[in-house]
Specification:
The protein is 45% helix and 15% strand. By secondary structure, it is of the alpha/beta class. Helix 1 crosses helix 8, helix 3 packs parallel to helix 4 and helix 4 packs parallel to helix 5. The longest helix has 33 residues. The chain binds nicotinamide-adenine-dinucleotide.
């Protein structure tokens, strides 16, 4: 029997990177996964995978989130994975860039929680099960400071605060809420950041050098923690910012 057998789990930003790998890993462990993303073409590659149902969802669109919550069955698990890396210092971050980062990285989680939490709470009360929310934060800048991660670090620190608040509010109602803080993970957007650097070869070396383990994480280094935090194996874990960072914060 899978570790997520019988659970319904929604994942945002599931068309590529950590979200996609998490959808596949959760389905493999027996969950019914609702894989969502703004990128319909990326989702198409997941359609037809056993245990995965795809839905186009822009997490910046409140009406679309509300409509999807009305359409889907109540969830046992929710992985708010969507996020964007703004590159630069405070001097490179105008109001529009700040607002975009906070909207996509933080307010999206607020919207998705407002839409899906009532159903999750009702289900866990009715069935005496443990519901689990996982919010994507990051090791970079929210836990350990790095240059050129001004807006990013601010948003991911906010995700950790939001996570602890939700955990504290619903701890007695069968709902847990944790934040995931990966180190540097080899995903399409990381490859774009490397390619956009003035010296891409040096940029890749610098990203690798961050991890004392001596390499980038693969998405498969991250998904075991996702499965664990969404499963009942983590039933005594809530309000935590969980690091999977290759030793960066030793
Ligand atoms: P990625 O950045 O390669 O892909 C992001 C996905 O988000 C894409 O499929 C994109 O279509 C989707 N997306 C963008 N805007 C959206 C919107 N408005 N609504 C719905 N989906 C939208 O994936 P990744 O690198 O695995 O990053 C996923 C998350 O993990 C992000 O929150 C990121 O900050 C976080 N993270 C990544 C790393 C890393 O090194 N890659 C490290 C720590 C944390």
């Amino acid at each position: 029997m899978g570790r997520l057998q019988g659970k319904t789990i929604l994942i945002t930003a599931a068309a590529q990177g950590i979200g996609r790998a998490s959808a596949i890993a959760c389905a493999r462990e027996g969950a019914q996964v609702f894989a969502t993303d703004i990128a319909a073409e990326g989702l198409a590659a997941l359609a037809g995978t056993a245990g995965i149902q795809t839905h186009r969802l822009d997490v910046r669109d409140p009406a679309a989130i509300t409509a999807l919550a009305a359409e889907l069955p109540p969830l046992d698990g929710l992985f708010n994975c969507a996020g964007f890396v703004h590159h630069g210092t405070v001097l490179d971050c105008d109001d529009a860039a700040w607002e975009f980062s906070f909207d996509l990285n933080v307010k999206s989680m607020h919207r998705v929680l407002r839409a899906f939490l009532p159903g999750m709470l009702a289900k866990s009360a009715r069935e005496q099960t443990s519901a689990s929310v996982l919010n994507m934060a990051s090791m970079a800048s929210s836990i350990k400071g790095f240059p050129n991660r001004y807006a990013y670090g601010a948003t991911k620190a906010a995700v950790i605060g939001l996570t602890k608040a939700v955990a504290a509010d619903f701890v007695k109602q069968g709902l847990r809420c944790n934040a995931l803080c990966p180190g540097t993970v080899d995903t399409p957007s990381l490859r774009q950041r490397i390619a956009a650097a003035a010296d891409p070869v040096q940029a890749e070396k610098d990203f690798i050098a961050r991890q004392p383990l001596g390499r980038l994480a693969t998405v498969d280094d991250i998904t075991p923690q996702v499965v664990y935090l969404l499963s009942d194996e983590s039933r005594f874990v809530t309000g935590q910012a969980v690091l999977v960072d290759g030793g960066v914060t030793i």
